[in-house]
Amino acid sequence: MASISNLFVDQGSDFNITVSLTDATDSALNLAGTSFLAQVRKSHGSNTVKATFTTSNDGVGGNLTLNHRCTNLCIRKWTICVRCRSNC
Question: Which of 65, 63, 67, 81 is CA-nearest to residue 22?
Answer without folding.
Answer: 63
